[in-house]
Amino acid sequence: MSSDSASDKAVHADEKGVHPAAAGKVNDASDVIVLSHATFASAAPRRRGPLGIYDHTACQVALLGLVCFLGPGMFNALSGIGGGGQVDRTPSINSSIALYSVFAVMAFFSGSIHNTIGSKPTLFIGTLGYSLYIGSLLSYNFNQNGGFVIGAGAVLGACAGLLWCSQGALMLSYPAEREKGRYISIFWVIFNLGAVLGAAIAMGLSWHSTSNTVSNGTYIAFLVLTALGAFVSLTLKSPGKVRRTDGVPVVVPKQMGWTDEFRGLIRVLHTDPWIVLLFPLFLASNWFYTWQFNIYNGLLFTLRTRALNSFIYWLSQMVGSFCIGLLLDSPRLARRTRAWIGWGVAICIVFAVWGGSYHVQLGYTRADKPSEGLGSEYYRTDVHSPEYGGLAVLYACMGLLDSITQCFTYWLFGAMSNDLAKLAHFAGFYKSVQSAGSVGAFALDKDGASFMAELGVGWGLNAAGLIIALPVLAFRVTETTDALQEKTVEGREQDIKQIVDKVVHENN
After folding, report:
1. DSSP class of residue 131?
2. Which residues pair with 249 in a beta bridge?
3. 3-state secondary structure of 249
4. Span of 163-167, 210-214, 286-290, 301-305 with lowest mean pLDDT
5. Going by CATH, does the domain composed of 57-496 fall within 1.20.1250.20?
6. Using the 8-state DSSP alphabet, how is residue 380 labeled?
7. Which of 93, 242, 252, 324 could serve as a FRET partner for 293 with CA atoms 20 to 30 Å apart?
8. Maximum distance among all alpha carbons in the chain?
9. Which residues of 194-224 are buried (b: 16+ CB within 10 A; e: fewer)?
10. Residues contacting residue 445 through CB under 8 Å, at least 6 positions apart
């Protein structure tokens, strides 16, 4: 179908309030229906009162953020302290390699699993691994069983692949196009509030501790919170009952066979290969955590200072995601303009933060510390040390870097589709490649690469990922995502047409 004919049909939809597809004008299996705002403006209004608030897509994304607040948020709080809060980083590093290796494989196929069993079951299963992982760290304090920590990490990798696939699909399919940046920021703020709270708990419990490891009480508190996350995931509304603020319903994919869904994964890659140009950006998005958490925060600071730094890091993520969300949804700017400005902000902060990090890294090497990465207290900066202020500001800027680049990445591939099934695959690709990057970073650290080499790789990947993504901004991002021009998994256009016909019938 030509772009001219698609535009003509979209114009008719706005003029008459009914899209031609509602009358059955679907030309072939490659066409998908545009759902016009006029068609659904009065369809199935939300309930009033508390139930109306619960029905709102912003509330659903907030609940999704709460799930990740209680699961990945607690995990991030421990990771941000360095070495999972342990004196010996080795079990945490080995576990992280297992975690992200399994995560990378599971996430790649998680879109097919999501589309087969549904969003809520996928999300619920995904929450279960976090309690097991934190329980393994608690167990390690008693028996030093590194094998259990590694096994728990592998299980968490499988669970996390499912959780983040469902999260990405729901977060990007619930908002209208004009709201995606804000919804991403809503999620990111709540999600990172979990890490802020977790870091505050760790800081409070370790402030007067002379030990360099997280206490049992801290792990128990985190264990309880992660268990609550599984319960909260069950409170979300079924996606098939959700309508966006513009009246457009979220079309849930029919549950097809596993073979069909895996074919759909390949079809998404074949029909929208632009997503592959974002893979380097995906790869870079978590690579720097090893350097930031273990080499910078984990080695340069005392335990209580590391906990405070973690608190500052995740708090700055909340600020960064809020600001970039407002920018990416600015009503005064065209979507393509917002894409370019967002890219410019991201590339500037990449060079500013990594430049400052390079300056700090010049002051110490791996040889300055014992092989297990401990070092004496003499070398560790405390809250009251005179040099602490500048180092804390730099760490806060690292949090800004993470939130801005990740939120921009989500927004970028969210601008390529509004379809729940397709976004599930995109989110799976994102987390798969991202996790593969984490494996590479942890392996590089474990093999004893110089700290400067690890910094250089992280910096280079961050910059290269944004540069390689430029063709997507130039040629793939449009002012609106026209579903008539979007290729999704086979059969989705018929699903959407049925929903259109039903709503049009209700309005008549």
Report:
1. H
2. 243
3. strand
4. 210-214
5. yes
6. S
7. 324
8. 77
9. bbbbbbbbbbebbeeeeebbbbeebbebbbe
10. 93, 290, 294, 295, 454
Q: Give the containing element (helix H, strand E) for 347.
A: helix 335-361
Q: How far apart are CA 464 and CA 469, in angstroms?
A: 8
The size of the chain, in residues, is: 508
Is residue 34 a contact partner of residue 21, using CB atoms and an 8 Å limit? yes
- Chain-centroid distance of CA 70 in Å reads 15
Helices (H) and strands (E) in the chain, counts: 21, 0
**Which tokens sit at 373?**
């990465």
Number of Cα atoms under 13 Å in the Cβ half of residue 235: 16
Predicted pLDDT at 196: 87
**The dihedral sign for the CA sequence 75, 184, 502, 54:** positive
Which pLDDT score, from 0 to 100, does residue 163 have?
95
pLDDT category of residue 137 using cuts at 50, 70 and 90 = confident
Q: What is the DSSP letter of 62?
A: H
Q: Would you put residue 82 in left (φ > 0), alpha (ψ -120 to 50) or beta? A: left
Q: 449 phi and psi, to 5 degrees?
A: -60, 150
Residue 463 has pLDDT above 90, yes or no: yes
Q: Which amino acid, 272? A: D
pTM, to two decimals: 0.80
Which has more pLDDT, 365 or 70?
70
Whole-angstrom Cα Rg for the chain: 23
3-state SS assignment for residue 289: helix
Contact 422, 295 (CB under 8 A): no
How many C-beta atoms surround the C-beta of residue 20 within 10 A?
A: 17
Q: Residues 492, 28: contact at Cβ < 8 Å?
A: no
Dihedral, CA of residue 156, residue 285, residue 367 and residue 374, to nearest 10: -40
pLDDT digits (tens, 9 = 90+) for 33-50: 334 333 333 334 566 777
Residue 22 DSSP code: G
Q: Which residues contact 307 (CB under 8 A, 6 or more apart)?
A: 81, 199, 202, 203, 206, 207
pLDDT by residue (tens digit) across 163-215?
999 999 999 989 988 899 999 999 999 998 888 887 787 777 667 665 556 67
In the chain, domain spans: 57-496
CA 321/CA 335 separation, integer angstroms: 18
d(CA 74, CA 182): 23
Residue 489 or residue 365, greater confidence: 365
